[in-house]
Amino acid sequence: MILIPILAMLVGALIALIVVFPIHNLLVAQYMAVACLAGLDTVLGGIRSGLEGKFHTDVFTTGFISNILIAFFLAWLGDKMGINLSLAVALVLGARIFTNLSLIRRFLLTKWQDARERKRLQQGVTTTPLQSQIQVDTAP
């Protein structure tokens, strides 16, 4: 299940590389940037939930579409009101992206450390790293 958001991100990147069209309008570029941030946030959230064992395809799909539409709408609404809301949207999405990345990193690091500890225990090593560093001479 974790492969779905990763595959969606790779397919999107591949499509972006194949279909190249210049964006001459700065306003459209802002909307596209906000939509890309919303999509990246959703993909990273999907990866995180997959690692946690809580991934659901329907939640990911609806979240992906609604996050992009909401971010796009807020940027559009800000332009109509004369306020640059795309910066606020980018700030919120950026914070969520960094939060998701830190949680993914923490989960993977914990998983890696647990695997190392299991391997160490299976090999029969029962000393802790601190005990192996301290050399205690018990001879008289």
Question: Which structural traits does this protein have?
Answer:
140 residues; elongated; mainly alpha; 5 helices
Looking at the structure, what is the overall shape? elongated
Spans of at least 5 consecutive residues with low confidence: none
* Rg calculated over all Cα atoms: 23 Å
| Distance between the ends | 61 Å
Query: What structural category characterises the helix and strand content?
Result: mainly alpha
Strand segment count: 0
Helix content: over 70%
Number of helices: 5
Proportion of beta-strand residues: under 5%
Mean pLDDT score: 83
> What is the string of SSEs from the N terminus onward?
HHHHH
The largest sheet, given as strand count, sense and whether it forms a barrel, is: none
Description:
The chain has five helices and no strands. With 140 residues, the chain is an all-alpha fold. The chain has a domain at 23-110. The chain is elongated and about 65 Å long. The N and C termini lie far apart (61 Å).
